Amino acid sequence: MAGRKEVPLVGVKVSLFDRDRLSSDDLLGSGLTDSKGRVSFGFTARQYADIEDVKKPSQPLRLVMPDLYVVVHGAAVKR
Prior knowledge:
By secondary structure, the protein is mainly beta. The chain has one domain (about 15-75). It contains 1 helix and 3 strands. A 3-stranded antiparallel beta sheet has the order 2-1-3, with no helix packed on it. The longest helix is centred in the middle third of the chain and has 4 residues, at about 45-50. The two termini are about 15 Å apart.
């Protein structure tokens, strides 16, 4: 917001998930935010590919991107 000082959330657990339509969502990674409130995740296509992503041999090959969402665990902001 304009005029407000941004304060990073340090040491907060953040989890990254791939949303699936037909099966349970896949946890792609978890981590703690750093001194600047940042966290990064690395994952491969194999980690988020599911049976619902598999195409029939007669279908053209297409790139299937994950439908990602983030969960921030227990973040409390002091004012």
